[in-house]
Amino acid sequence: MRETTPNLDLPYLRQAQAQKHITHNDALTRLDAITQLVLVDDLVDTPEDAADGDCFIVSAGAGGAWSGKDGKIAVRQDGAWLFLSPREGWRAYFPGDHDMKIFAEGQWQSIVLPSHASVGTLGINATADNTNRLCVSAPATLFNHAGSDHRLTINRQASADTAAVVFQTDWLGHAEIGLAGSSRLALKVSPDGTNWFTALDVSLAGVVDQPNRPLVSATLSIGAYVPPNDSQIGFDTILFSQGGFTLGSAAPGSGIGNRLIVPADGFYAINLRLRTSASSGHHVTVLRNESIALASLTGQANDQNCVNCLAQLVTGDSLTIGFSGASTIDFSPENLDLEVYLI
C-alpha cells in the first residue's frame, strides 16, 4: 500500500498509527501550500524575513538550509522549511511578474494562449467591455509585418456608417481621420470634442478640398463713385467665402462699406482688381488695420488695374482700400473685387 497520495504526495494515515495528528497536520500543511499556489520569488539565498506560508522556488546552487534542494518549492512553516517537488501541470501565480505560470518540461513557463484563440473581449493592461472589445493600455503598440506587407483594415457596414481613427486628449476628441458618413476621406478637428470642422476632404477621384480654408471675394456695389482724396472704403457684398471671413464695422472716415475681417492667423495671398472710368491719376492701397499698406497701384483713366501680394495676417485683422488722387471708380462686382485666401 502506498504511503502518500499519487498526485500531491500527501501522507496517508496508517492503521493503528500513534499520534495521527502529526501526519494529518503535515498533509494539511502541504495542501495549504499547493492549493492556490503563490510563488513569492526564485532565490538562491534563504530569505530571512519569510512568513509562515510563504513559498519560494529554490534556484540552482542554493546553500544553507536549501542546499541540494534545487528546483523544489520551499515552504516556510513554524520556523522551518518544507520542500515540495512540483509535478507536471502544476499552476502557480508569480506576484512579482503579475503572471500565472505552469510547470512543464521541468520549468515554470508562462501560460501561452492557443494559436487560434477566440475570445469575446480582450484587455491588455486595461479593462475591455462590450463596446471596446479590444482594449490596450501601453506606451506604444506595434503591428509588424510577417514576411513583407502589413495592412490595418477598418471595415464598416454601409457608406452612411463611420470607419475612422479618433485622437483624444483626456478622453476628449480633437482629431478624426477616416470615412464619416460618406465614401470621401475626411480629416476633421475639434476644439471641444463636440463641434467638428473638416480640414481636408478627398473625393474618390483623389480631388482634395479644404472646406474650411479661409478665402473670400468681396466687392462694393454702389456703382460709379469718386472716393474723396485720402479716404478709405470697405465692402458691402461677399461674392463667395469660406473659413469664416466676415464684414465688420463701417470703413473709417467715409463710412462707405465695411471692414473685411480676417478669421485666422497665417500667410495670405491678396489680389485687388478695379476699373477706373475717369482719372487724372490715382493711387490705390490695400490697408491692414486702416494704416499698414500691404499692396499699392497707380493708374490712369479707363484702366483695369490689378495688384497682388503676400501678407502675414492674424485673427481679427481688418482690410480696407485707401484712395488718393482724383478718379471715378466703378464699384460693382464686375469691375471691383478683393480676393484673399490662406496659402
Characterize the structure shown.
The chain is mainly beta and 343 residues long. The chain folds into three domains: 20-110, no CATH class; 156-210, no CATH class; 215-342, Jelly Rolls (Sandwich). The protein has one helix and 25 strands. It has one helix spanning 20-34, and strands spanning 39-43, 55-58, 73-77, 80-84, 91-94, 99-104, 107-110, 122-124, 134-136, 162-169, 172-180, 185-189, 197-202, 208-209, 215-219, 223-225, 231-233, 237-242, 246-250, 258-261, 266-288, 292-299, 304-313, 318-331, 337-342. The mean pLDDT is 92.
Evaluate the radius of gyration: 41 Å
CATH class division of the largest domain: Mainly Beta
Strand tally is 25
CATH architecture of the largest domain: Sandwich
Q: Helix and strand succession?
A: HEEEEEEEEEEEEEEEEEEEEEEEEE
The percentage helix is under 10%
Alpha-beta content class: mainly beta
Mean pLDDT: 92
Our count of helices gives: 1
Which geometry do the CA atoms define?
A: rod-shaped
Sheet with most strands: 11 strands, antiparallel
Tell me the strand percentage band: over 45%
What's the structural domain tally?
Answer: 3
| Uncertain stretches of 5 or more adjacent residues | none
Terminal-residue CA separation: 93 Å
CATH topological fold name of the largest domain:
Jelly Rolls
